[in-house]
Write a structure and sequence with these properties.
Largest sheet: 5 strands, parallel
Structural class: alpha/beta
CATH superfamily of the largest domain: Response regulator
Number of helices: 8
Strand order of the largest sheet: 2-1-3-4-5
Distance between the termini: 37 Å
Number of domains: 2
Strand content: 15-25%
Shape: elongated
Radius of gyration: 19 Å
Helix content: 40-55%
Amino acid sequence: MRLLLVEDSLSLCEVLSTVLQKEKYEVQLAHDGETGLEHALSDIYDLIILDVMMPKMNGFEVLTEIRKHRIGTPVIMLTALSQEYNKVKGLDLGADDYLPKPFSTAELLARIRALLRRKTDASPDNTISYGNVSLNMSTFQIYNKDTQKSVKLSQKEFDIIRYFFERPRHVAEKDPLINKVWGLDNDFESNSLEVFISFLRKKLAFIEADFAISSIRGVGYQLSAKN
């Protein structure tokens, strides 16, 4: 799981980053609101930990922009502001949880796990769907809901189709898609992405999906209904 930590305190960042990495999370750091927003808008993170009081842009402003761009990534806000109206403001702007400072790392980890469970538990049977196709999050299978015809996906195929299913009306630009699936520090070439897209197209055709992965010239890909 990939987390974005936006916090201007270098010492707190160092502590939290160490704790999160020990829990096997991949952590990207940002020390001001503008940089944090730039990272968040890439839409490659599974969860964002966002401080309120920061230089350049405060956490409320960053959160407003994130939600304005229709990015639904879970957000935990951190703040030394303990007044109830600040908590209410954060939640009203679209925060998923709110943790006042000081806090224990154990509590933060518990809240992270809870939000990530909520995100992955898309339905009682742990599936997400688009058109006549469902993706089983546990077995890495896609199947036709009408015929039950199914096929197993590789890890990367699963990551790619999940990205599409979670953003069904979104045009997936190549670079953000690659960063989401392969991470920020990668030397993966965009033309190799086409190979994985080709594999997925064949598997979707095999199970007789009522949609396809269409190429948007010069941009990326998008799910589209078949004529």
